[in-house]
Specification:
By secondary structure, the protein is of the alpha/beta class. The chain contains 39 helices and 25 strands.
């Protein structure tokens, strides 16, 4: 494997709006997706618009190369990897346009399903496709794979809800299929495509037997091969081409924008779990349940139930079962309103009463109970994939068969697991669609295991096709099933697919080897080998769920990429490719370590509970010198003086010309390094105020832990341009105003949540601070009797982490209750306050910490108490200021806040500005103030001002 390459393409032909990334770290970072295939691209191209993509096609063709599109990288079948040219269709293609009434939405391929549905939520509508990976999968993949999901079936998938597309064909032709003269344009520019599609349409329709077979194949979920049903469903060659592109996995055209018909959200939901003694009983019940029109009917086999019993939130309905051959169906009723839900639930329960259930059935509308039931279903992947042996790959496969044959296929799959000695396999999925998933763990570095996988695949193909099923229902043909398309469709229909490929992409430049392959063993090539590296890395399944929320995704790397590069360096050394490992390592420190905000949002999204920030903190600890560790340990012992000194330094800096101070810090960074010396700018505030004085009244109801951020950084100016006292003082005043006495521990100014040490990997200093803080809080809280309330969300989260790490050695500390000021004030204080004057509008920035603390609702509640309109940007995310990270690497915060800042600016312009801009953490407020040019303050400061007597 060569290290950094020279350009494989003519950059002049690409033009200035196509960025090329060809560093070794860039190519390896983007090589990985959620599939079990791995190919490293020669280069990664990042075009900015459809015209640039057309030029990419021309340059690739001229060079005799091929290309593959990559957006979210959540595909499971190998359709998103290449050893040639990769085209990043996520970075510059994230636009979303919504109809005035929300009935349609046009989205570019880099927008995620969640982002699209967030934009639609205000209209009470959503996309039809509802893939489980909606947090990370993008519109490009939804179209390319004809995604469906738990509820949409084949009625509301991409194929059925698409209205038009903006296509870039391999020839460079750009076609808007919504244009009134789209057919005339296509006939003029691509006459061969028009004639060829008309010929194929007429040929298929002229053969009743073939037409019937195509109709049968696509009467179920089916993503094998090209959608030949489009030749039956549409007359117009434009519509045929448009629908052939759906599910074509990037082998026919680039979709620069897709316009969908949206569907109404059914907000009233009731959920139940039906447990049967046998799989046979569950399958026998399926037709009757399907006839009820239930929104979802999810199957869990006996192995799934055994796994579920190990979950911490296992529902009572299955907790006490001695699982033998049991099976369960998770059902849901969706309705437009409460009355319709009551009627639908009653009908479901009346029908279910006659079924042979192991335990009595009940339906629930309670969000917590519903969440626990869905945890059973969604937690299967987490439990099985997360516990897989190191060095193995988790393969999540899917098939579909006619519903009446699902029992035989599930029993057959179980027999195949036993025959091929696959342990711990689970079967689950969308029973009402005859679509099930199964999960196996395999290692591809063992020739014997590879032969087992090959034999299992052959048996699987025979089983599914014998039952009239499809080898891929939702996940796309990809590389894994491309050699078996001919087995499923026969020669005539498969040859038609090859004709379609030749018509639209005659030079074969788009994603060769995907969907169609005449090499019977191609699915065994380029399998992903997973070396053992370290705990966080070894658990990763490379799904990419972590990527959309990562604040560094557009400036350096994502959490998935930070992890896979660790694998790549290890694998390169195992292969003896020292130069490759060295090339990656050269850029890894800045790209992966120094520009990670360690905000933990990746851990919230990760299905196997990896917080990549933990990995980065450990790497920082390994890099820290003993001298540096010693300095930080000393700082932990005298933190009060350090923070007061920092505040004084900011006061001095504020009194000097800002350019002078900036120049001095730039010089320091040049000598000592950008990861050591923060960059000062004039937007930073004065120093803060002194810490609260110790107090311990007998009638105290809480402990007030004032964040040291308030000593370091002064408060933002209020609406009149006057500096406030900060969140620490605001919380104190609000507690007194509500008649709530509080304790302030001794030496409060010298106590810290430990985040500065933890985030930098300064383990000795962190341990020292822990030994100071927790005993102080234990005493102040009267051995856990009083809640500890912190005024800064990131510090609250830091105390939670500190406490969790210490409980193993000091189990009595488990009684400590640490709460953020937003949640405590919303619950205990707000009802006792009187808002004297409400403001018109407030813009709210939720933070990564309020998200992880589940405090966003409280933040909104406090904002709603003071303002008539509470505006939360749909594109909000972690600001990446991350303590001092935003001063060490301003480019990180600039990138992380760009989308939200633009949204706030637009919304503010429409309203003539907001009356207040609020958040829940001082450093986040600094980051947002820098990004927007608006004065962000802690919400409690504004609340305190507006409730003054």
């Amino acid at each position: 494997m060569p290290a950094t390459l020279t350009s494989p393409l003519d950059e002049a032909a690409l033009g200035p709006d196509v960025r090329m990334a060809s560093r070794t770290i860039d190519r390896f970072a983007r090589a990985h997706d959620a599939s079990h295939y791995l190919l490293v691209p020669d280069a990664v191209l990042v075009p900015q618009d459809a015209a640039a993509v057309a030029r990419v096609f021309a340059a690739v063709r001229a060079a005799g190369r091929s290309l593959t599109f990559r957006s979210g990288g959540t595909s499971l079948s190998g359709q998103g990897v290449t050893g040639d040219v990769m085209v990043d269709t996520r970075s510059a293609f994230r636009g979303i346009r919504v109809a005035a009434d929300g009935t349609w939405i046009a989205a570019q391929p880099g927008a995620t399903v969640r982002q699209v549905n967030t934009r639609l939520a205000r209209f009470g509508r959503k996309l039809g496709p509802d893939p489980a990976s909606e947090i990370a999968c993008t519109i490009g993949g939804v179209v390319a794979d004809n995604s469906s999901g738990m509820a949409c079936g084949i009625v509301e998938n991409s194929y059925r809800t698409i209205e038009s597309m903006l296509l870039v064909l391999p020839s460079g032709t750009i076609l808007d299929t919504a244009a009134p003269d789209a057919l005339a344009q296509l006939r003029d520019r691509e006459p061969e495509i028009v004639r060829g599609l008309q010929h194929l349409r007429d040929r298929l329709r002229g053969d009743p037997a073939l037409s019937a077979e195509v109709a049968r194949q696509f009467s179920m979920k089916n993503t094998m091969g090209y959608g030949l049903n489009s030749l039956l469903d549409f007359d117009d060659p434009v519509r045929i081409l448009e629908h052939l592109v759906i599910g074509s996995e990037g082998t026919l055209a680039f979709v620069a924008e897709a316009r969908f018909r949206t569907i109404p959200i059914q907000p009233a939901i009731s959920t139940g779990l039906l447990v049967f003694d046998t799989l046979s009983d569950a399958m026998a019940a399926l037709p009757g349940l399907t006839s009820l029109g239930l929104a979802t009917i999810e199957l869990l086999d006996a192995a799934s139930l055994r796994v579920a019993q190990g979950l911490s939130t296992v529902p009572e309905v299955i907790a006490g079962i001695d699982v033998q051959g049991h099976a369960a169906l998770l059902i849901e009723v969706h309705a437009a309103d409460a009355d319709a839900l009551t009627a639908g639930t009653a009908a479901a329960l009346a029908h279910v009463a006659s079924l042979p259930l192991t335990t009595p059935a009940r339906m629930t509308e309670d969000p917590v109970e519903r969440g626990e039931l869905w945890t059973v279903r969604k937690g299967l992947y987490t439990a099985v994939a997360g516990a897989r042996p190191s060095g193995t790959t988790a393969l999540l496969e899917d098939i579909a068969v006619p519903v009446e044959r699902l029992l035989g296929v599930c029993e057959g799959l179980t027999a195949l697991f036993e025959k091929h000695r696959y342990e711990g396999c689970v079967i689950f999925g969308h029973a009402k669609d005859g679509n099930v998933h199964f999960l196996i763990n395999e290692r591809f570095d063992d020739p014997e295991a590879l032969r087992r996988y090959e034999a299992f695949t052959e048996d699987l193909v025979a089983l599914v096709l014998a039952q009239g099923g499809t080898l891929k229902a939702e996940h796309g043909t990809g590389r894994i099933m491309a050699p078996f398309v001919r087995r499923q469709y026969g020669d005539v229909l498969t040859d038609m697919m090859w004709e379609i490929k030749g018509l639209v992409d005659p030079d074969g430049i788009l994603n060769p080897g995907v969907i169609l392959s005449d090499d019977a063993g191609s699915y065994l090539a380029d399998l992903k080998l997973v070396p053992t590296v370290e705990g966080e890395v070894d658990r990763c399944v490379e799904c990419g769920y972590c990527e959309p929320t990562c604040p560094s995704k557009d400036v350096t790397l994502t959490p998935r990429q930070r992890i896979v590069l660790r694998r790549d360096m290890t694998a390169a050394l195992h292969r003896g490719e020292v130069d490759v490992a060295a090339e990656i390592a050269r850029d890894y420190d800045y790209d992966a370590v120094q520009t990670c905000a360690v905000d933990g949002m990746c851990g919230v999204a990760c299905p196997v509970d990896i917080n990549t920030g933990d990995l980065v903190r450990r790497l920082r600890a390994e890099e820290a010198s003993r001298l540096e560790q010693g300095v930080w340990n000393v700082a932990a012992k005298g933190w009060g003086a350090i923070t007061r000194g920092g505040g004084l330094a900011l006061n001095v800096a504020k009194a000097l010309p800002a350019p002078l101070v900036t120049a001095v810090t730039r010089a320091g960074r040049a000598v000592l390094g950008a990861d050591t010396v923060p960059l000062y700018d004039g937007g930073l505030p004065d120093g803060g105020t002194r810490a609260l004085a110790a107090t311990d009244p007998a009638d105290a109801q809480a402990v007030l832990f004032g964040s040291c951020i308030g000593t370091m950084f002064g408060a933002e100016q209020d609406a009149d341009g006057v500096h406030g006292e900060g969140s620490r003082e605001a919380v104190r005043l609000l507690l007194e105003r509500a008649g709530i006495a509080y304790v302030v521990p001794p030496d409060a100014g010298g106590l810290c949540c430990g985040t500065p040490w933890k985030s930098k990997g300064q383990l000795d200093g962190y341990a020292t601070m822990t030994e100071r803080v927790l005993p102080a809080l234990w005493a102040a809280s009267r051995n856990g009797a009083l809640p500890v309330v912190c005024d800064a969300a990131s510090c609250t989260e830091g105390l939670h982490v500190m406490l969790a790490k210490a409980v193993a050695e000091r189990p009595e500390y488990a009684a400590l209750r640490i709460e953020d000021a937003t949640t405590f004030l919303a619950r205990e204080v707000l009802p006792k306050l009187t808002v004297r004057e409400r403001i018109r509008s407030v813009a709210v920035h939720p933070t990564c910490s309020t998200t992880q603390l589940d405090a966003n609702d409280a933040l909104r509640a406090l904002a709603a108490a003071i303002a008539d309109e509470v505006y939360v940007p749909e594109g909000w995310g972690c600001c990446a200021f991350a303590g001092d990270r935003g001063m060490l690497h301003p480019e990180l915060t600039s990138s992380a806040t760009a989308v939200e800042a633009a949204e706030v600016a637009t919304a503010g312009a429409l309203r003539g500005g907001f009356d207040a801009y609020v958040s829940a953490n001082r450093t986040c407020e600094l980051g947002m103030s820098r990004a927007t040019g608006q004065p962000y303050r802690h919400v409690v400061e504004v609340l305190e001002e507006l409730t003054r007597p």
